[in-house]
Amino acid sequence: MRLSPVEVSDGAVAIGGRPVLRGIDLTVAPGEFLALMGPNGSGKSTLVRAMTGLRPLSRGQVTLFGTPLAEFRDWRRVGFVPQRSSAESGVPASVWETVSAGRLTRRRLLRPLGAADRRAITSALELVGLADRARDGVGTLSGGQQQRVLIARALAGEPELFLLDEPTAGVDALNQRALADALRGLKDLGATVVLVAHELGPIAPLVDRAVVMRDGRIEHDGELREQDLSHHDHHHRRAGAGAHALRVSAPLDGLAGGPAEGRRP
Ligand SMILES: Nc1ncnc2c1ncn2[C@@H]1O[C@H](COP(=O)(O)OP(=O)(O)OP(=O)(O)O)[C@@H](O)[C@H]1O
Ligand SMILES: [Mg+2]
Q1: 115-127 vs 143-156: helix crossing angle, rounded to 10
Q2: Is the pTM of this model over 0.85?
Q3: Cys-Cys with 249: which of 44, 165, 172, 174 at CB 3.0–4.6 Å?
Q4: 85-89, 103-107, 115-119, 190-194: segment of lowest average pLDDT
Q5: Rounded to the nearest 5°, which phi and psi values hold at 156?
Q6: In this structure, what CATH number is given to the domain that contains residue 167?
Q7: Which domain holds residue 117?
Q8: How much distance in Å is there from the Cα of 42 to the middle of ligand 1?
Q9: Is 41 in the pocket of ligand 1 (CB under 6 A)?
Q10: 227 C-alpha vs ligand 2 centroid, how far in Å?
Q11: Is the beta carbon of 20 within 6 A of some atom in ligand 1?
């Protein structure tokens, strides 16, 4: 039996003395596509960051591929796309250059890109549907396309475990479908995916397991439920969208359900 790509036992996180996560027990199976859901502030990003070691636990343990986090060194096996990050670093970079950065963990320092690197970059770009934009500057892409560049960058490292924090936030319906296609490709390759999302839209059919957080605890762990598909507190999300100064289309266009109106659970 293959080892769990990520396991949290009795995990707790306190930030500034305030408990933010409590009693987290979560074992993700190899190849599983897990949606991590729940309202704003429920602890989703904190949990994903704890899985990468970016946010230390105050109690409990995280293991990656059977190895306690503190001893884990095989970071090439893990791809992480943080929340609301921008592909733009201030330095004008092309799509190709940005995605090639995802190969860094696999390359010896200062070696030029080899054939295997080029293949991985090309197939990552194909998987997210941006092969035709490889030579374009990242800044000329839309927000949703930039998000796909970041996913391609993570993909290019050929990780086995993907941690994606709200890749669909502020992404229009067309780009959400492109993203869903890319994620389906990942899933077909056997990757394990932990994806944070408020609304799943076209990603919903990929989800094997839904974990719903509330006030720093896991409230539900199992099947994707009808109630988890509603667009709860979407308005809060929109307010912070300026963090990546991107063109953002109406995110709910063409999606079932329309904007949440008083549907906070
Ligand atoms: N750096 C920080 N300093 C202080 N408090 C923090 C910090 N990061 C998170 N928190 C708090 O921890 C709690 C959980 O935050 P977290 O970002 O994990 O929520 P979330 O579920 O990802 O929310 P969202 O849907 O808005 O992204 C919140 O109450 C938040 O205020
Ligand atoms: Mg978050």
Answers
A1: 140
A2: no
A3: 172
A4: 85-89
A5: -60, -25
A6: 3.40.50.300
A7: 6-243
A8: 7
A9: yes
A10: 19
A11: yes
